[in-house]
């Protein structure tokens, strides 16, 4: 990624007189630097200040501030919609109705978490225009902390986020183009998990091993590209005394040759009878186990490879 803290950048593309290709595609963003307000953001219509709406444009809803929040967050001056959430968890849908959001909207949301808890955002729906974007920041005290963690224009689904600071700040901005239905996101504050009270005994057939001991998360295997031939990857999810759910997002593995097998765990050992054995492109039903955790064992043969992903909630 190319990052410049000046007045802009100049990109120069040249080609020769022989072979040509498909070209290139990239995103750009102008983001705030500490102490320097954002000016001329690509989401803003040229010549229109961020705090003004062009004549004839729909007027967004007036600011909405939670009544007497315990923590008073320092919202940005340009935030027309301002909401603070202090419940341990919940779901935000914006806008609340069935219609599309307005052009030149600027909505801000603060999700407060007590000290010692982890703030998470999990996206459930996302439909915004190509000129529109969301920004997500960790929070320290009552202010944003540093640069946004991600910036997503329409057509791309944001990643889930998890911060160890005092909460999460979400900012949504729309431009002058086509709008969408908005977004729906689930937030939560979670106690930090203690370390697993036992050391798990991985089967000797596991070539790679990973132990996960967090209350919620997402696993994609592999992170990029296709998995390898002749894999034997094992994931242990430690969850003593609680209910653990594997919510499958998709699987893309060779039918009849590559397999995902899930075993319940009691103490530090996986039980011999599996609760799920899956192959192919169909999405398995959610896997729920009420024991001390689960062992997920993925194996591939020496031929075709694809990719797989699942989300884990404890």
Could you walk me through the main structural features you see in this protein, from its secondary elements to its overall organization?
The chain is mainly β and 314 residues long. It is 0% helix and 38% strand. The protein has strands at 81-85, 89-94, 106-112, 117-127, 133-140, 143-144, 150-153, 161-163, 167-173, 182-191, 208-212, 216-221, 232-238, 244-252, 259-266, 269-270, 276-278, 287-289, 293-299, 307-313. Strands 1, 3, 5, 6, 7 and 9 form a six-stranded mixed sheet that branches. Strands 11, 13, 15, 16, 17 and 19 form a six-stranded mixed sheet that branches. A hairpin with a 2-residue loop joins strand 15 and strand 16 (269-270). The chain is globular, with a radius of gyration of 23 Å. Residues 37-53 have low confidence and may be disordered.
Features:
314 residues, mainly beta, six-stranded mixed sheet
Q: How are the SSEs placed, and which strands pair?
A:
Layout: E1 81-85, E2 89-94, E3 106-112, E4 117-127, E5 133-140, E6 143-144, E7 150-153, E8 161-163, E9 167-173, E10 182-191, E11 208-212, E12 216-221, E13 232-238, E14 244-252, E15 259-266, E16 269-270, E17 276-278, E18 287-289, E19 293-299, E20 307-313
Parallel strand pairs: 1-3, 11-13
Antiparallel strand pairs: 2-10, 3-9, 4-8, 4-10, 5-6, 5-7, 5-9, 12-20, 13-19, 14-18, 14-20, 15-16, 15-17, 15-19
Q: What is this structure, in a nutshell?
A:
The protein is mainly beta. Helix content is about 0%, strand content about 40%.
